[in-house]
Design brief:
This protein is of the alpha+beta class and about 400 residues long. The chain folds into 4 domains: about 40-50 and about 305-380, Beta Barrel (conserved putative lor/sdh protein from methanococcus maripaludis s2 fold), CATH 2.40.420.20; about 55-65 and about 210-305, Efflux pump adaptor protein, beta barrel domain (Elongation Factor Tu (Ef-tu), domain 3); about 75-100 and about 175-205, OB fold (Dihydrolipoamide Acetyltransferase, E2P); about 100-175, Helix hairpin bin (Helix Hairpins). About 25% of the residues lie in helices and about 35% in strands. The chain has helices at about 5-25, 100-135, 140-175, 220-235; strands at about 40-45, 50-70, 75-80, 90, 95-100, 175-180, 185, 195, 205-220, 245-250, 260-265, 275-285, 295-310, 315-320, 325-330, 335-340, 340-345, 350-355, 360-365, 375-380. Strands 1, 14, 15, 16, 19 and 20 form a 6-stranded mixed β-sheet that branches. A 6-stranded antiparallel β-barrel has the order 2-9-12-11-10-13.
Length: about 400
């Protein structure tokens, strides 16, 4: 019996079975229709307008509200220092005592000279009165009367000069008490007891700085300031405050200064090298938390945009040209692609100038599946507090 035909038949059947298994494992051939999918659901927010306070963050430095260098106004030896370095002093408080002996003697001498002149004036006055009566009855010559009147005037001038000398001596004697010209915090002393000082010397004995309130000087480009003025002129912005713009501070460690300041001064000249202008804000500083020379970042409230349109940053994508784009859901539940013109970041949102209208449904969640023209389902989008996109400027 020949079994060869049966073996060939079995082998052929085995090849057919294996081929069918391979085809089944590979699935449908490429180019076939995609598997059916359900209608995608998009998380949306309704676009609304609202008042938006626009702010600008700029670098700045703290500057004392008042500053005064303490210098002597008379020559002499320092007898004592009467303040604690780094402490607070009041205006008029004595800081140094200069040896007053020489100035006391000069004052006493001026007083004595004045008293002598006053005695001479009384004598001349009495003589002039008598001669005035005698000349009326021709008992003396007119020349004698005129000489007496001249002597009276000379004595009066001597008294006036004596009073001036006394005042000058009194002032110099008072200057031996070197007093604080302003209230504030005083720094280290430049001299010690026993040092010789001279009037109006170039080296200050100490420096006093008033820290409450305190200034913060910041710089802003002239172009930004011009743009702000134009926006206010057009009516796009309203003033942030009734009298002056409000200012907040961010300290060097990133924390916020708890007290609010106000913008008080704007320079009238633009720096020709940097194209910037100096702005000065004043802040209350009751605890001296702000010290002169500190680097800070000032957040200036430029104004309020009454009909601002804000959208979440995560809703905005970029096209190939880098322009901001979004998807909105039309009345037919189909997605529409929009190109936006944005102005700036406000927190975790973008301020939109054009491209959206109030009441439209903006897609925020489900963007990877978004495509213009597809029909979608919508659901209200709820922000995820755990992920807040960082704000950054955008080019219009």
């Amino acid at each position: 019996m020949h079994l060869a035909p049966y073996f060939r038949l079995a082998r052929t059947l085995l090849v057919l079975v294996v081929s069918a298994a391979i085809l089944s494992a590979c699935g449908k051939p490429p180019g076939g229709p995609p598997p059916a999918e359900g209608m995608p659901t998009m998380g949306v927010v309704t676009v609304i307008t609202q008042p938006v306070t626009l702010t600008t963050e700029v670098p700045g430095r703290t500057v004392p509200y008042l500053i005064a260098d303490v210098r002597p106004q008379v020559n002499g030896i320092i007898l004592s220092r009467k303040f604690r370095e780094g402490g607070d002093v009041k205006a008029g408080e004595t800081l140094y005592q200069i040896d007053p002996a020489t100035y006391q003697a000069s004052y006493d001498s001026a007083v004595a000279t004045l008293q002598k002149s006053q005695a001479t004036l009384r004598t001349a006055q009495l003589k002039a009165d008598r001669y005035h009566e005698l000349v009326a009855v021709s008992a003396i010559s007119r020349q004698d009367n005129d000489d007496t009147a001249a002597a009276l005037g000379e004595a009066a001038a001597d008294v006036a000069a004596g009073k001036a000398s006394v005042d000058s001596a009194r002032i110099n004697l008072a200057y031996t008490h070197v007093d604080a010209p302003i209230s504030g915090r005083i720094g280290k002393s430049g001299v010690t007891a026993g040092a010789l000082v001279t009037a109006s010397q170039s080296t200050a004995l100490a420096t006093i700085q008033q820290l409450d309130p305190i200034y913060v000087d910041v710089t802003q480009t002239s172009a930004s300031l011009l743009k702000l003025k134009q926006a206010m002129t057009r009516g796009d912005l309203e003033k942030a405050g009734a009298s002056a713009a409000r200012v907040h501070l961010l300290l060097e460690d990133g924390s916020s200064y708890p007290l609010e300041g106000r913008l008080e001064f704007s320079d009238v000249t633009v720096d020709k090298d940097t194209g910037s202008i100096t702005l000065r804000a004043v802040f209350p500083n009751p605890n001296a938390d702000l010290l002169p020379g500190m680097y800070v970042r000032a957040v200036l409230e430029e104004g309020v945009k009454g009909q601002g349109l804000l959208v979440p940053q995560r809703a905005i994508q970029r096209d190939g040209a880098g322009k901001p784009i979004v998807y909105v859901v039309g009345t037919d539940h189909k997605l529409q692609l929009r190109t936006l013109v944005t102005e700036r970041a406000v927190g975790d949102q973008w301020l939109v100038n054009s491209g959206l209208k109030p009441g439209e449904q903006l897609v925020v969640d489900g963007l990877p599946r978004a495509k213009a023209g597809i029909e979608v389902k919508i659901a209200p989008w709820k922000p995820d507090a755990r992920s807040t996109p960082s704000a950054s400027p955008v080019a219009n």
